[in-house]
Write a structure and sequence with these properties.
Layout (H helix, E strand, L loop, with lengths): L2 E6 L6 H8 L9 E4 L2 E6 L12 E6 L7 E4 L10 H8 L3 H12 L5 H11 L5 H11 L6 H10 L3 E9 H11 L3 E5 L1 E4 L2 E6 L6 H15 L6 E5 L5 H6 L2 E5 L3 H4 L4 E3 L6 H5 L11
Parallel strand pairs: 5-6, 5-10, 6-7, 10-11, 11-12
Antiparallel strand pairs: 1-3, 1-4, 2-3, 8-9
Keywords: Amino-acid biosynthesis, Hydrolase, Magnesium, Metal-binding, Serine biosynthesis
Family: Belongs to the HAD-like hydrolase superfamily. SerB family.
GO molecular function, one term: L-phosphoserine phosphatase activity
Length: 283
């Protein structure tokens, strides 16, 4: 079966880097430049090829490359931060909360228990602190808006599914262009956080369930989905997708992903599907 080697880099892929990879591929075809940041080469396998410094190199099957749905994690994937960590800064407990977050994302802690503990530590914060947190700390990662808007323009479903909080996913989804967003709901009492979230907790299983449910509703299966995340909590979702992508991810997720991105922005997910820059929807 024919495959494609996809070479990507946020800083751009040079002709010299393409030549370096080309010489090591098994039965390579001619390189095709999808964008300044992405080149694809038809081949049988990667052979002994490795990614040049500052680049990502992934192998994807030629068949069924363009997906019908994008499902994405939010924290440290669509945005560069963990919202709960930034919110904790407003409560003066960022270091403590960030340590729990890091361990949970590595898969060392039970996600549900870790979430409840972290939310408990920000009890009493006013709603205005969430507003300030979003305004001052939250932005989209490079390529996020182009990825989501392009997928939607090409007819794909788009869903943001997070173990974080609906307060933030609703705003990030609107900024990026996601049609659907799902997350946990923070509880308030007279405009102050109670330190609790509503049940049930949206975690690893709920992300997988969302993928399956949304795909079924769209009339296709998990093989037609591209999923992207960064932590252990995304593993089931990424493994189930037809193309599962680990984006600047923890080791617990990298081992289960079809593609790993360390040096590329999120438009690399378009390149993995063979979508050239001429088809990208850019601001």
């Amino acid at each position: 079966m024919q495959n494609f080697a996809i070479l990507t880099a946020a800083a751009g892929v040079s002709d010299a880097q393409v030549s370096q990879v080309l010489s090591e591929l098994v039965q390579p075809g001619d390189p095709v430049r999808l964008a300044a940041s992405a080149v694809e080469i038809a081949c049988a396998s990667l052979g002994s090829a490795v990614a040049p410094q500052g680049c990502d190199l992934n192998l994807v099957p030629a068949q069924g490359r363009r997906k019908k749905m994008l499902i994405a994690d939010m924290d440290s994937t669509m945005i560069p931060v963990e919202c709960i960590d930034e919110l904790a800064d407003f409560a003066g407990v960022k270091d403590r909360v960030a340590d729990i977050t890091e361990r949970a994302m590595r898969g060392e802690l039970d996600f549900e228990a870790a979430l409840r503990e972290r939310v408990g530590l920000v009890a009493g914060l006013p709603r205005s602190a969430l507003d300030e947190c979003y305004t001052q700390r939250i932005s989209l990662n490079p390529g996020a808006r182009t990825l989501v808007r392009t997928m939607a323009h090409l007819g794909a479903q788009t869903a943001l599914v997070s173990g974080g909080f609906t307060y933030f996913t609703a705003r990030v989804a609107q900024a990026a262009g996601f049609a659907v967003n799902r997350a946990n709901t923070l509880l308030f009492d007279e405009d102050r956080l109670t330190g609790k979230v509503s049940d049930p907790i949206l975690g690893r299983q709920a992300k997988l369930d969302s993928l399956c449910e949304l795909a079924q509703a769209g009339g296709f299966d998990a093989g037609d989905v591209i999923a992207v995340g960064d932590g252990a909590n995304d593993l089931a979702m990424v493994e189930a997708a037809g193309l599962g992508v680990a984006y600047k991810a923890k080791q617990a997720l990298r081992i289960g992903a079809d593609a790993v991105l360390d040096h590329s922005d999120l438009t690399a997910l378009l390149a993995l599907q063979g979508i050239p820059q001429e088809e990208w929807v850019q601001d």
